């Protein structure tokens, strides 16, 4: 069944999309070599908070993953990465 959205619902979705776009832009702007994932997360969360919004994904723990990011840190450490929470340096 297709649900027809009201003008008010469309306006709310449009504004939510703008807030998400601003939070992604803030994270992208903050992304530099050596910046932690937490710092990127904080940049995005600040924009959300300023807009009076929050993320439905905060605290989300999928049933199929025992650790956040599914053990990504363990795999990176085995490969010799020193700081798995940091962006890697660009390869030349």
Description:
With about 90 residues, this protein is an all-alpha fold. It has one domain (about 10-80). About 50% of the residues lie in helices and about 0% in strands. α1 (about 5-30) runs antiparallel to α2. The longest helix has 24 residues, at about 5-30. It is extended, with a radius of gyration of 18 Å. The model has no long low-confidence stretch (mean pLDDT about 80).
Provide a short characterization of the protein structure:
By secondary structure, the protein is mainly alpha-helical.
Layout of helices and strands, plus pairs?
Elements: H1 7-30, H2 37-50, H3 72-78
Helix pairs in contact: 1-2
SSE arrangement, N to C:
HHH
Mean pLDDT: 80
Q: What sort of overall outline do the alpha carbons produce when their principal axes are compared?
A: extended
Low-pLDDT residue intervals, each spanning 5 or more residues:
none
Termini, distance in Å?
52 Å
Question: What helical percentage do the residues reach?
Answer: 40-55%
